[in-house]
User: What shape does this take?
Amino acid sequence: MTKKILLLPGDGVGPEIVKQAENVLRYLIDSGQLDATLETALIGGAGYDAAGVPLPEETITQAQRADAILLGAIGGPKYDTLARDLRPERGLLGIRNALGLFANLRPAILFPQLAAASSLKPELVAGLDLMIVRELTGGIYFGQPRGIETREVSGSNEKVGYNTMVYSESEIARIMKVAFDIAEKRDGRLCSVDKANVLEVSELWREGAEAVGQSYPNVALSHLYVDNAAMQLVRAPKQFDVMVTSNLFGDILSDCAAMLTGSIGMLPSASFDEQGKGLYEPVHGSAPDIAGQDKANPLATILSVEMLLRYTLNEATLADQINQAVNQVLDQGYRTADIMSDGMTLVGCEAMGEQVLAAL
Ligand code: NAI
Ligand code: MG
Assistant: This one.
């Protein structure tokens, strides 16, 4: 059956990098290797500019009909003065919520050609292949109550800001199942990260991990407090294989893990609903400092296409081919500015995309 893929280019470098990923998909379709159609819709500032809202209804409808979604990035300084509900970031949170995308997979894999670009010594990161599973639609980002209000604080009125970290047993169980399934297929090791020494919500998280773990006798479950986990990630990252954590902790730890691999321009991600439908996107944002200059690295987005083919469309062979093409281009010495080093060939966003196509 023909699959529907929805492209959401978004803002800043989004349209530039999605264009290169689209070229890869079109090549696979036109050469008869992939049975799929491509559609494009608005999100973020692009949605606001054209329709007055960061997540037009039409985009939600198209996303619901699609088998898989590829997003570029949203946001930019031009939108920073808008009311919170109209800002591009609300478009991204909104689509995650509307589609129930609760499981965010962020692999941190070091391409050996880029070992020198890591912020850690090469011997600490050589062969790094880590998967962070982050819960995406619960926790403090969505917990109620939340707000800013004026209250009496020790005798005088002050503004007070508050958010609430909430997880239910079922929310914990479903993210744990995703993480255990992945750990079972990989190295059989899962590290759950929380702050159970201080937070009740983490106590429940830890109980939930242990409970789901009963059904996975082949996976060794360990627990770390988030502060120690952050330290261990930069001390000895290769001790980890799969990590699972809540929304806020995962946001922070996965950016930290990302830098171990050299550049944020290399990192793809996937977010899933309960049926396995996925939204794929580079980890980075709209990079306003380089937008419109043909400087962005399109590889994170092209590697997101690899994940899309592997996880949602079950096209492992095509996914492998994309990975091999990226490896070949790096072997040939082509580098965008963010991963440039001595002796390599500097290319722009478009030329990098063309080299990947040539390698394919
Ligand atoms: P950013 O990820 O856009 O940029 C951080 C740094 O990395 C910049 O120096 C940028 O030039 C560089 N960079 C990012 N992607 C790159 C690529 N593909 N190739 C080469 N260099 C790249 O994060 P920043 O600056 O904090 O945020 C900019 C905007 O993006 C904000 O409006 C923010 O809200 C939004 N944002 C959106 C995200 C998304 O769409 N998922 C995620 C993070 C931020
Ligand atoms: Mg982040």
